[in-house]
Structures are given as C-alpha cells and as structure tokens.
Amino acid sequence: MSQPCPAEIILVGAGMAGLTAASRLREAGHAVRVLEKSRGPGGRMSTRRAGPWQFDHGAQYFTARDPGFRQAVEQWQARGLVGPWNPRIRVFGPSPEKRGDGPATRWVGVPGMNGILRDLAGTVDCRYEHRVTGLSRHNGGWRLTIDGRESMECNRIVLTPPPAQTAQLLGQDHPLHATVSRVHMQPCLALMLAFDNPLDPGFDAAFVNTGPLSWLARNGSRPGREGETWVVHGTPEWSRANLEQSPESLIGPMTEAFEALLGRSLPHQAYVTAHRWRYALADPGLEVGCLDDPETGLVIAGDWCAGNRVEGAWKSGVQAAQACLVAP
Length: 328
Ligand SMILES: Cc1cc2nc3c(=O)[nH]c(=O)nc-3n(C[C@H](O)[C@H](O)[C@H](O)COP(=O)(O)OP(=O)(O)OC[C@H]3O[C@@H](n4cnc5c(N)ncnc54)[C@H](O)[C@@H]3O)c2cc1C
Prior knowledge:
Layout: E1 2-3, E2 9-12, H1 16-27, E3 32-35, E4 48-50, E5 53-55, H2 67-78, E6 82-84, E7 89-92, E8 107-109, H3 115-121, E9 125-127, E10 132-138, E11 141-146, E12 150-154, E13 156-159, H4 163-170, H5 177-181, E14 185-195, E15 205-208, E16 213-218, E17 228-234, H6 236-241, H7 251-262, E18 269-282, E19 291-293, E20 298-300, H8 309-326
Parallel strand pairs: 1-12, 2-3, 2-13, 3-9, 7-15, 13-20
Antiparallel strand pairs: 4-5, 6-8, 10-11, 11-12, 14-17, 14-18, 15-16, 16-17, 19-20
C-alpha cells in the first residue's frame, strides 16, 4: 500500500546526523519526516533503560572542537541537555596509546546520552519502528519501502545509517555504492551492570590497553544519573572475534575480565546484560562532510562521512542540510 506523504524530504535514521539535518531543514521551512527502525531516537547515542537503571551503552562522552559544534553544545548546556563529565580516570596496561590525558571538556547528554536527540526529535515528525527496506526512483523523486510492505514517497532523501546498511539501500548499481562500501566499521560488544551497593574502585572511567576490554565507565558518575551502574566495552579485535556469539554468552567472559582488572570479585549484580554494536566506529571514516547526488536529490550523511564520532555526526548532519538547501 502506498501512503501519500506530505514530507518533501525524508531522512532515514534518528541519530545525531539525521536529527541535526532534520531540525535544520525544518527550521528552513521544509516539510521533513524522519524514519527510524528502533523504538526511539539516539542511534549509537542511545540510552538503555531497565527498571530503575539506565546505561549509556554506546557513545560515552563527546568533545567539541569545531566552533559551530561548540556553539551548539553551549546552547544545549544552557538548556540542561548536556553537562561536563569529570571522571577520575585510570589507565590499565602498558600501552601509552590511550593515556586518558585531559582533552577538551568531556560532554555527556543529560539525563541520558540520548537527551539531546530526544529534544531534537520532539521538533520534527519522527516515525519509529519504521525500517526502510527498499529505495527506488519514482516520478522524479523517491519511493521508500518500509518493513517490506508500506511505501512512502518524497522529493529528496537523506540516508544516515552506517555504511553497510546505506550501501545495501543504494544497491550495487548506484554511483555512490563503491565509495560507501569502502568504509568499514569496527564492532563493539558492551556489558551493562547494575549493583545494589556502591562499587568504588577509586576511578570513574578507565582506558584499558590490555586484554579483551577497552573501556570501563561508572555510568552513575555522570551528571544527572543515579545508581551504581557500569558500562564495559570490548576491544574492536575481541569484539570482532566474538561478534556472532549471543551477547548473553559474553556476559561471563566480560565480567571475568572486569574482575581481573579490579583484582577482586564483583559484588552481587542486581542487573546485567550485554549488547552487540555491529557498527560502532568507522575505520577509517571519510572526510567529505556528506555525499551528495544533486541530480536525484539524494544525500548520504553520518559520523563516518566527517571524521567519526558525535562531533563528526553533527558536522555531517549540518552539511547534509546545506546540501539539501542548495539542491535545485
Ligand atoms: C560503543 C560505542 C562507543 C562510542 N563512543 C564514542 C565516544 O566516546 N565519543 C564519541 O564522540 N563517539 C562515540 N561513539 C560514536 C558515536 O556514537 C557516533 O559517532 C554517533 O552517535 C553517530 O551518529 P549518526 O547519526 O552518524 O549514526 P547513528 O547513531 O548510527 O544513527 C543512524 C540511525 O539509523 C538507523 N537506521 C539504520 N538503518 C535503518 C533503516 N534501514 N531504516 C531506518 N532506520 C535505520 C539506526 O537505527 C540509527 O538510529 C561510540 C559509538 C559506539 C557504538
């Protein structure tokens, strides 16, 4: 069934890139609609909620170096959507590659990492649990298939899923397919733990340069969070080697690796779960801002188009909106 769509521009993905572009296009007077396969906004900046606990299990914090992004962060801070995180940092292992040296301020969303994106999503027409499964040219514009059934039409389209998913939507014959499929993403397996009692090992975050883990974070030490919750990330290598295991089967090995770093057993866990990020960070990303096919009204954006990470996703979203605004 084809659904008439009042949206002039459809954006696929409600992460930082898609929602930044959508809100700028809406501010410029365009009718926009965002389609997101998950149940809410956030993408890799999602916050997992379980009972009384919440976990920032994807992006851990972000820095702001670009003057435009710094300005955006200042505005979010003034509205209480982000805050600085000043963790006590420890470094495990001999490698100096990640020493946790104080960079620019480490920012986090408040009350969860997805706080900014929930705010942005509130300003545009977002449809959740809408997975785009097909894309074709139609009447000079685009027709999208949603979940293999329903379809929507629009004049212009902005794709922000990770490169493998974007390449699949484009199809092999598209002129941008080769560029997009050259970008590979590193995986990351994440462990989330909640404790009834405080677990204070003397640090709030740790860069780990030895063994299967890469990062430990005391989620509750971030502004606006409560409870003794921790997030643990596997290295890209270990995550890749175990990617096809069920996340549940990795709880044991990851917990043991956490205990080995602390040098003691963990106290009773009130809640524990694991998550597989198949596409976490680009390795390496592109430095193009966004990819653009002005003749067909198609723009491709995402952190992997603009140097990776949250700041890259924001910059790519801004550039995608500009590309749509100058398109004929
Ligand atoms: C484990 C982990 C740790 C990280 N740590 C940091 C960090 O410390 N600092 C930092 O700056 N960055 C970090 N990042 C990276 C950061 O999260 C990303 O750079 C940023 O969130 C990417 O935003 P995006 O909008 O480009 O993509 P995404 O957030 O991936 O958004 C794309 C959206 O598209 C949706 N989608 C995909 N396919 C479809 C489809 N077919 N139909 C509809 N919707 C679809 C997805 O569900 C997703 O919501 C981390 C990421 C991970 C996973």
